[in-house]
Amino acid sequence: MKNDSGLTLEQQFKLQVLREEVKQLSLEQAQEYLVEVLRQSMVRENLYKHWMKEGI
Fold first, then answer.
1. DSSP secondary structure string, the chain?
2. Are the C-beta atoms of 22 and 14 separated by less than 8 Å?
3. Is residue 51 very low, low, confident or very high in pLDDT (cuts 50, 70, 90)?
4. How far is the CA of 44 from the CAs of 9, 20, 54, in angstroms?
5. Tens digits of per-residue pLDDT, 5-46?
6. pTM
7. What are phi and psi of 23, to 5 degrees?
8. Which of 15, 22, 27, 56 keeps 20 to 30 A from 38, CA to CA?
9. What distance in Å separates the CA atoms of residue 47 and residue 41, rounded to the nearest whole number?
């Protein structure tokens, strides 16, 4: 079941856990983490585009 945020309860829980973990990071660690998350998002987007193109 999803709520107004568009996330399932499990996803909301994972997000809250991540919020708590991120609070413990230094600024440099947080910046590196953010860049890595963006990189992974771009890879995922490229995969989706490839799959749509291939009709999978």
1. -B-TTS-BHHHHHHHHHHHHHHTTS-HHHHHHHHHHHHHHHHHHHHHHHHHHHHT-
2. no
3. very high
4. 23, 25, 15
5. 799 999 999 999 999 999 999 999 999 999 999 999 999 999
6. 0.69
7. -60, -25
8. 56
9. 10
